[in-house]
Each structure stands twice: as C-alpha cells, then as structure tokens.
Amino acid sequence: MATEYTFRDSDLRSRPLRIVNRVGATLRRAGIERPAMSAAAVVAKARKKGGSDDLGSDSYREGLDHYLAAAEAEADLTTFGRILISTMLSGALANRILLRRWAEEHPEVHAERIDAPWIIVGLPRTGTTLLSILLGLDPLSRPLLGWEATTPVPPPTLETAAEDPRIAETAKGLARLEKLNPALPAMHPMGATLAQECVALFMYELRTVGMETQALVPSYGRWLETADMTPAYAQHTLALKTLQSRYPTQRWVLKSPNHLWCLPTMLETYPDARVIWTHRAPGPVLTSLASLVNGIQRPLSTRTDPRPAAEEWKHKIHHALSTATAFDESAPSGWCQHLQYDALMDDPIGAVRALYAERDEEIGALHERRMQIWLDRRPQDAFGRHRYDPADFGWSYDGLAEEFADYRARFDVGTA
Does 302 map to a domain? Predict the structure, then answer.
C-alpha cells in the first residue's frame, strides 16, 4: 500500500538545517538578519552567477521590490527559508542575464516563430500535467521540460539533448528536495524530463504566481493582480525562441494557471494559440492546492497555521476565475476549448482525440500509440498518495461549492 502524505509531513526534519534556523533566530534577536534579502544583494548574486552586469531593462525591479518587501513583512521565513528564497530570486535573474546575452550573440534566435502553441490554462489540480504530457507525445509537438526551464542556456541541440549533463544535475537537485521534503513528490509530480509549467519562464521577470507558492506574500499578490504582464511574456517568448532555435518543433505544449490572470496579454503575445481551459469541482481543487502550498512553504517558515496560505490561495483562485470568466463572456466564440477533468480522467486518449477533432484534425497513429504505452506504464502512487481534508483549512466541500456556484453553473462543473 502506498504511503499517504499530508502537508503536515513537510515539517523540516533535517537536523543541520534546524541548527541553521536556531542560529539565525539567535542572530535575529540580536538585530542581525542573515542572509540579506535586499534588492542589491539579490542582483549582485545574480550578476555573479550570470557572469555579466547586463540585465537589460530594469523592468524586473518592480516585482523584485514588491516581493522582497512582502517576504520580509509577511512570510515569517526562517533562516533556511531566507536562503532558499534569495537563491530562487538570484537564480531567476541570472537566467535572465544568460538568456539576454545568448540572444545577442546568436541573432538567429529572433527570427524564430512560436506558431499555434497548445496553451493549457486550467487551475492547478485539474489534470493539466497529464494533459500536457499526452499532448507532448505528439511527434510534431514539444513540451517545456523541467531541466530546460531550470537552465535554458545554452539551449540543447538535437545532438546533445538526450545526454545533456543538466538533466542529471536537475535530477540530483530534485532528489535532494525529495529527501528534504518526501511529501512533495506525492503532492505534485516532479522530474527533470517531465513537462514543466511555463510559469517558470515568467520567473525571469519576477512576475508570476509561481513565486507565491514558495512564501506567503499577499501584498505581492495584490500587486501582481494588476501588474502589466507584457514584459513577462517577452521573457517567455525569448526563452521559447532560444530553445527552439537549436531543437526545432512545429508546436509547443505549454501550461500554467498563471495565464488565467492575464488572458488578453497571453493572446496578444500568441494570437494563434490553441487554448485549453480545464475544469474541475472547486472543492478538491482548492483543498488539494491549499495542502500543496502549505507543504511547499512549511519547511521555510515559522508559521504552523495552514489557514492563512489556504485563504490567500482561495482569494487567488477567485480572482483568476472571475477575471477569466469575464474575458470568456466578451471574447469571440471558440477562443478556447473547455475540457472537464472527469472526461480527461475517464478516457485520456479520447479527450485528446476530441481536442484535435474540434480543430478538424486527427491524432496520428504514432501519437496514439505513444499515449497508450505511457498510460499503460505510468507509475501509480509511485511516490505515495496525497491526502487532503477541507476541514484542515476551516472549509467544507459543500461550502466551497456554494462559494464558487457561479463558476460551476457557467461551465457545468460538479461539486466533488
């Protein structure tokens, strides 16, 4: 029987890291905060990692300043948490430096076109990972892989992609994360060569809800709700063009709920995108998501109450659904394809076949065979089973169903 995990299994158990936190707490009481989380410190570290002072424009600074202020005031970070958050931010900006320099030195990157990408915009926990994997098995398509999003430069080539040493490096990093937080792989599939959320590419602009999974930063979230996402999509496009320039594909397979917050900008950037909006009952979506976010944040924070993070993400989902629904009401018919979670789970290949058929296309025989083999052999609960209970967050499934009644009615979504 598979081991069952909840967010409570994410408590920091590493003795060396707990010692680091105790030392940090002692220094904090003496008025010394380490490591420094100032914008200057993060940028200096990024420049050192990236090997250049050139970050292009300073458009990233607004997001950086808002995030750092929120992290200091709201996130209750431990010393270990401060180390990881600082490393995340500097690593994202280092990738920005490397990407910019590569494109300057290889101007052919700018001639690339990102044509008709599949973009899955459903909420987390609605089958988006499964769908992106299945679509990515089409020989004419290509998903963004975990290791590529982590280290996009230099872009892999057709000759080197299968044996790129960054695959092993990324896998080792994920193994360390699993050892530190064994509950996490049961909550969310991870892998160096698995399809990755393209939200990782927004990181280079520091404008993404992905950063909010790492720490409780409500004021950053309120800023992000109205922030201009154009520069984030510019980084997104540049990264895809760079990767495509040496490993061509006819069509990208992309996914992130972040797109729901900014559909007009997404479609301005990719006007011919094949958009799929996945739907699932809000009760399990929110409860599973609240458990996941608490599982991610718990090892980095002194906060033990799971409800603040859960309520913040409930607000975020409300905002995403209301914004996207308003867009859907005014957008031209057929701007996206809607897919119910139950339909995808009941017949994954049939669901993909229907998506192609809506576009007057057929899935190829090789594509179908690949999907069938993958489905037949995919591990079931290989890393354990994720258990979540709405009562942990002061909720009930009936209450959540009522709270999201308008969304459920509009898209014919069930209650459980």
Answer: yes
Contact 104, 60 (CB under 8 A): no
CA 387 to chain centre: 21
Please confirm whether the linkage preceding 35 is cis (ω < 30° from 0). yes
Find all residues with CB under 8 Å of 184, minimum gap 6, and list them: 10, 177, 178, 190, 295, 296
Domain count, the chain: 1
pLDDT by residue (tens digit) across 92-104?
Answer: 999 999 999 999 9
Identify whether 294 is part of a domain. yes
Q: Residue 333 is part of which domain span?
A: 116-411
Share of the chain above pLDDT 70, in %: 98
What DSSP designation does 211 have? G
**CATH number of the domain where residue 214 is located:** 3.40.50.300
CA geometry: angle 150, 135, 143, nearest 5 deg: 20
What residue has token string 């290509």?
A: 142
Amino acid at 60: Y
Measured distance CA(389)–CA(287) in Å, rounded: 7
* C-alpha closest to that of 113 among 336, 269, 274, 335: 269
Mean predicted confidence (pLDDT) in 398-404: 95
Q: Characterize the bridge pairing of strands 141-143 and 4-5.
A: unpaired
The Cα–Cα gap between 51 and 48 comes to 5
**Dihedral (C-alpha) 350, 355, 360, 364: value to the nearest 10 degrees?**
-60
Residue 77 lies inside a defined structural domain of this protein: no
Give a yes or no: residue 66 inside a domain.
no
Contacts of 354 (CB under 8 A, 6+ apart): none
First-to-last C-alpha distance (Å) of the chain? 25
Q: How far is CA 311 from CA 180, 216, 249, in A?
A: 26, 11, 40
Percent of the chain scored above 90 by pLDDT?
79
